[in-house]
Amino acid sequence: MQLTYINADGRSITLKQSRPYFLTKIDGTGNIRQTVNTFKAPDQDGAFYISSTLDMRNIILEGRVLANTPDEAYALRQRFLQIFSPKLNGTLIYRNRQIACVVEEAGFTVSTRQRTPNFFVSLLCPSPFFETLDEVREELASWIPLFEFELEIPEIGMEFGMRQPSQIITVDNIGDVSCGCEIVFQALGTVTNPELLNIDTGEYIRLLTTMNAGDELRVYTHFAGKRVVSVNGSVVTNAFSFMDTDSVFFPLAAGINTLRYDASVNMELLEVSIYYRPQFWGCEYAVIYLQSKPGACGYC
Fold it and tell me: How far apart are CA 100 and CA 289, in angstroms?
C-alpha cells in the first residue's frame, strides 16, 4: 500500500509501509459529502428537490518518519515540508489513479511515548473525482495499417493502409460520471465544416471553416475549460469564432457514447480523434490504518 505526491515543481515523495516515510493512515479516498439544494414553499411539508453537488474532497495522511540518526531525521522532515508546500498545487497518485489537490496543512508532532516524529497532511481536492493516470485515445476517422512482415509485394501491387470504413464509433467511458474531452480534427486535404455528432443526445459540435492539408483544430469540452484552438506547428491561436451557434460542448456520458463525424466537403480527408480521462467517485470506501512493524525505531 503506497501513494505518491507530486507538486507543481515536479518534486515527488512516496509514502508507504516502509522507511523513511511510514504511512499509518489514509482517510478521504472513498465516500464524499454532497450538498443538496431544495426549495420550501410556505406551509409545505418537506421540500422540493432542486439539485445536488459534491463538496471538495479532503484527504488526510498520517504516518511516522523513521531514521537512523537525528541528522537524517531532520533532513527527512525538511524534504517532507518542502514537497508538501501549501504554496504549490500538486497531484496525488493512489491505486493507479490520480487527483489534483492543494496542501491545506502539513506538519509534525512528537509523542511523549515515542521518539519518532509523526507527520500529518491535509489535502483539499477542488474536483472530488479521481482520474486514470493516462488519457484514453479513441480514433473515429483514421487509417488502418496493412503493412506487415514477412513482406511480399505481388505484381498487381498491394494496399499499405485502409480508410476506417464507418463514420460511427462507440466510445466506452468506464468512469462513474460524465467527463469532458478533447476533440481533434485533422485535415489531410481541403475539408469544409468538420463536425462531430452525439447520436444519443442529438448534440453536435460543428466548426464553420475550411481546413487545408495539415491544419488541426482542437475542441475542449471540460467543465470551466471549454475552448476551441487552431494548431499550426507550435503556434496555437484562438478559434472560438469558428463554432456554429447551435453547437454544444457535450461531455462523454458514463458508459457507451455513440458518435458520428462528418463534413460538408471532403469528409474522407478528415481525421478525428478523442482524448479523455475517465473519472471515478473514489478509490475505496473505508479508512485505512497501517501499523508499523515491531522494532521499528527512529529519531525526532
Answer: 23
